[in-house]
Write a structure and sequence with these properties.
- With 171 residues, the chain is mainly alpha-helical.
- Helices cover 50% and strands 6% of the residues.
- It is built from 7 helices and 4 strands, in the order H-H-H-H-H-E-H-E-H-E-E.
- A two-stranded parallel ribbon has the order 1-2. A two-stranded parallel ribbon has the order 3-4.
- Helix 6 links the parallel strand 1 and strand 2.
- Helix 1 packs across helix 3.
- It is globular and about 60 Å long.
- It starts with 8 loop residues before the first helix and ends in a 13-residue tail after the last strand.
Length: 171
């Protein structure tokens, strides 16, 4: 019952996707916006609740659900989490600067507290903000790592790659 001009479907879908990537249920989304009486977001929250209901009735998940439900499964089912922690001896994440919070929660859950996690990234190359990538996830981890030459055995450490072997010098 909403006007498409006032509530463009793409904008509504984007708000729902953002909520799911923030691991926020329709109820939490509605509560947040009702607390500050945001009329527009409240309407979007009602669409989100109806959308989720329709997905459940169809026994379906959208892409954002696949990520969010994976996080919930790994957080609430120790046997599943431990299975994947054993399965993946090492985990390499390239383009880590383009990670969003729900993806990062999956990495944390399967990585044995980060002890077998190797991340590569360059915050200057972050290009997936439209997919809710959050370069600060990479920056926060980067800031907390010790330079490799000063790191103790087993300590998280950072290694700066300052030479580019893929391009000519002018580039």
């Amino acid at each position: 019952g909403l006007e498409e001009k006032s509530f463009p479907p793409r904008e509504v879908q984007s708000a729902i996707s953002r909520a799911k990537n923030d691991m926020q249920s329709p109820e939490e989304f509605l509560e947040q916006w009702q607390s500050i009486n945001d009329w527009r977001k409240i309407r979007i929250g009602k669409v989100y609740a109806l959308y989720n209901k329709k997905l459940r009735e169809a026994n379906a998940l959208d892409f954002d659900d696949l990520l969010w439900h994976t996080v919930r499964l790994l957080q609430t089912a120790p046997d599943v989490r431990e299975y994947y922690q054993r399965k993946f001896r090492y985990i390499l994440i390239d383009e880590y600067q383009d990670t969003n919070e729900v993806q990062n929660a999956i990495f944390r859950a399967v990585s044995r507290e980060g002890k077998n996690l190797f991340t590569v990234g360059d915050v200057k190359q972050s290009i997936y903000r439209f997919r809710l990538a959050d370069p600060t996830i990479f920056l926060d981890k980067y800031r907390n790592f010790t330079p490799a030459e000063n790191a103790a055995e087993g300590e998280d450490r950072k290694i700066l790659l300052s030479k580019n072997f893929r391009s000519r010098g002018e580039i």
